[in-house]
Specification:
Order of helices and strands: EEEEHEEEHHHEE
Structural class: alpha+beta
Radius of gyration: 20 Å
Helix content: 10-25%
CATH architecture of the largest domain: Alpha-Beta Complex
Low-confidence stretches: none
CATH topology of the largest domain: Nucleoside Triphosphate Pyrophosphohydrolase
Largest sheet: 7 strands, mixed
Mean pLDDT: 91
Length: 222
């Protein structure tokens, strides 16, 4: 490359895919953009990373500023750098994804977001930028990681039944699981413990409630 060639300035953004199980379906948290470009379109929470912060800190800050969500498990997903992905110029985004318990968040629109709402993964509106691609990548990563890690535990409330945990696995994986084999494999991980409390589930006898031994931790179990 010639030394006289002018390099275009490059900006770095971060976008976050937040997953949760709502009404027995996998949902994604979206914000309605309040400014250009794509004003009025739905998008992922995110924004530009400040010069004095890490990308991870920028992701956490933008998530809180646009949705009011804070202190959730965030994992880096992928870097998206197509030349024309942002009409404002050369913008590279580092995407993250997170899993949160159903009903465990007080979501509100803030900053430059006009609204914030949950959408089913199979019923997403047209998204701004390349956010549709980012969501699809995060969804594929989530399904793959379900088979070799305890990432699904991040969707559980403080106390839960084994039936609730199994249903999370089934919703994400898209297939029914054998109850006996599931419980045997989950208990063998020694990642959860009984709380001593019970919960009534329909006409069945009360079910034992469990909790995570290490909240916020994801273990590889391959």
């Amino acid at each position: 490359m010639s030394s006289s060639t002018k390099r275009k300035p490059i900006s770095v953004t971060t976008d976050i895919v937040i997953f949760s199980i709502i009404a027995d379906a996998l949902n994604v948290l979206l914000i309605e953009r309040g400014g250009e470009p794509f004003k009025g379109k739905w998008a992922l929470p995110g924004g530009f990373v400040d010069g004095d912060e890490s990308v991870a800190d920028g992701a956490a800050r933008e998530l809180e500023e646009e949705t009011g969500v804070r202190n959730v498990y965030l994992e880096q997903l992928y870097t998206f750098g197509a030349v024309d992905r942002d009409p404002r110029g050369r913008v590279i985004t580092v995407a993250y994804y997170a899993l949160v318990p159903s009903g465990g968040l007080n979501v509100r629109a803030a900053s430059d977001a006009r609204d914030a709402s949950w959408y089913r993964i199979d019923g997403l509106p047209e998204l701004a930028f390349d956010h549709g691609e980012i969501v699809a990548t995060a969804h594929a990563r989530l399904i793959a990681k379900l088979g070799y890690s305890t990432i699904a535990f991040q969707m559980m409330p403080q106390e839960f039944t084994l039936s609730q945990l199994q249903r999370v696995y089934e919703v994400i994986g898209g297939e029914a699981l054998d109850k006996r084999n599931f419980r045997k494999s989950i208990l063998a991980l020694e990642m959860i413990e009984e709380t001593g409390n019970l919960r009534s589930e329909g006409a069945h006898r009360p079910a034992k409630l469990f909790r995570l031994r290490e909240p916020g931790q994801v273990r590889i179990v391959r």
